[in-house]
């Protein structure tokens, strides 16, 4: 989960150079299907990009980037949660339903394969904390909307859409700050860990403490995420 080139550049004291690094981050999020996560290593926190693409296929999920078993499980959890909430969030894969499927039913994986990639492929990655980032990345892909380029996130997910606490919050927040990001989404149950972060860093960042994936998506996209309501009612934001 290493993005050392970006992080090393961010440590410079030259403001113009730091601005250039921030622009590099923005460029990475200039199309749907990319989100910024936060990872912990023995050397400290790192920002971590997650990328997704879709193609015609038979509902297969491909994972690349040297992932451990726990991280692979997070990816499958993210897919399952999005499939069960696709209508709620107006998500589409642009394909017609598979032959034989009941009228009105829809599945994100109809005639669709998904590829999730975690750059820095030479580095082994594992752990559950990328769950919220994977969900956000895929929600971006299937909605066609860009994730905010100044937001990073961390948190484990459950099949019911809960966000569970993770470790390394201080180091992860410091990594986001070094990279010039402005907002960090963390699990609500990690809110107490913010007390360990230096005051000057807390002043430069805004924090969203999320207990569920609805709250994560609402914070990760400009203007929130549109939710389909009951027939006869206006659509609403989270």
Automatic annotation (TrEMBL):
One function term, GO molecular function aspect: ATP-dependent peptidase activity
Positions of the catalytic residues: 129, 172
PROSITE patterns: LON_PROTEOLYTIC, LON_SER
Domain Lon proteolytic: start-end pairs: 29-223
UniProt KW keywords: ATP-binding, Hydrolase, Nucleotide-binding, Protease, Serine protease
GO BP term, pick one: proteolysis
PANTHER family given in the database record: ATP DEPENDENT LON PROTEASE FAMILY MEMBER
Full protein name: Lon protease homolog peroxisomal
Annotated organism of origin: Lynx pardinus
Lineage of the species this protein comes from: Eukaryota, Metazoa, Chordata, Craniata, Vertebrata
